Amino acid sequence: MEIIGHVRTDFHEKFGIPRQGGLVENIGYIEFLPPFDVPVAFEGIEEYSHIWILWQFSENVGEGWSPMVRPPRLGGNVKVGVFASRSPFRPNPIGLSLVRLLSVEKSPTGGVLLKISGADILDGSPVYDIKPYLPHIEAIPGGDGGFAHRVKDDSLSVICSDTVKKEIIKDFSLSDFELLREILSQDPRPHYHADPERVYGMAYKGQNIRFRVVGKELEILSLEKL
Q1: Where would I find the H helices in the chain?
Q2: Burial of 27 by CB count in 10 Å (0-12 exposed, 13-18 middle, 19+ buried)?
Q3: Which has the higher per-residue pLDDT, 214 or 76?
């Protein structure tokens, strides 16, 4: 298969990326490579609200796969078959994400950029294909989501001091701050981590966001330029 482009997001490392597409409305782009970036190849795509992205887990290439995995939704301690999960450690490192299509734009080189939101994808990940989402076929009322639907909500309450909030807003913006809170509320830690003294760091928009978690509360401690 040929790589047709790359995804551009504010996630520069795997830690902290939302575990599924659409959980957080973060903005990203798909940059296409020649000869796949010709505008005629995208005629009509703006009529769709969402698209599927078929992409490569590029950080996992060559790492092999396992027939049994530990899904985060099950706390990281229960094993299921790899094909009953969306684990990145698969026989072929292929990801599938449903994202909202915001606009079709011109790239600096004169090609096509797709502006998207809700991507659960590492910045720079190669793209193999995109396809339009068809809600009248692909949205199945009453469909069973398996263990992913049966696990209780494990979101966190995100807090920080006024000083840290002002620092974040100075470097980002108020809307970016709210988006960061939404990302962190999904609990980026491995689910088997429960040390209230441990300080974590998450790379986001060129900053290292440092935080800790006590119970169901995540406190943003500081941010440092990467």
Answers
A1: 135-138, 147-150, 162-171, 174-185
A2: middle
A3: 214
Residue 29's nearest CA partner among 105, 108, 128 is 105
Residue 7, SS3 per DSSP? strand
Residue 19, both tokens: 């575990």
Q: What confidence tens digit (pLDDT) does each residue in 131-174 have?
A: 999 999 988 888 887 766 666 567 899 999 999 999 888 888 88
For the chain, helix (H) and strand (E) counts, in that order, are 4, 12
- E strand or H helix that includes residue 212: strand 207-214
Tokens matching residue 164: 């840290």
**Which pLDDT band holds residue 192 (cuts at 50, 70, 90)?**
low
